[in-house]
Amino acid sequence: MPKMKTNRAAAKRFRVSGTGRIRRPKGGASHFMAKKNSRHLRRLRKNDMVDGVLQTRIARLFPYGVP
User: Fold this and answer.
1) Domains: count for the chain
2) What is the residue range of 42's domain?
3) Long-range contacts of 17-26 (CB under 8 A, 24+ apart)
4) I need a surface site. Which of 3, 21, 43, 67 has the fewest CB within 10 A?
5) For 2-54, how does the pLDDT look when each residue is reduced to its tens digit (9 = 90+)?
6) Does any domain span residue 64?
C-alpha cells in the first residue's frame, strides 16, 4: 500500500505546541495594515490555538502527525 500524503496547505499553516495542541496564525495580518492600530497589529503577531472541536478534523489532514 502506498504512503498516505500530508495535506500540504495544512502543513504550511499549522504547527504543534509544546503541550500537543495545534497552533495556528491569526487571520487579517496580510494587507490593509495602515488602517489597523498598533495594538491590533501587535495582537495579530501572536499565534492562536485551534478550537478543540476542530482539532480532530485538522489532525486528520496529517496522517503521520502534525509537523
Assistant:
1) 1
2) 8-59
3) 17/49, 21/49, 21/50, 21/55, 22/49, 22/50, 22/55, 22/58, 22/59, 22/66, 23/47, 23/48, 23/49, 23/50, 24/48, 24/49, 24/50
4) 3
5) 999 999 999 999 999 999 899 999 999 899 999 999 999 999 998 999 999 99
6) no
Residue 40: name the closest of 52, 54, 26, 53 by CA: 26
Nearest to 58 by CA among 5, 15, 25, 3: 15
Q: Give me the pLDDT at residue 67, please.
A: 78
Residue with the three cell numbers 489597523 = 36
CA–centroid distance for 31 within its chain: 18
Report yes or no on 47 lying in a domain: yes
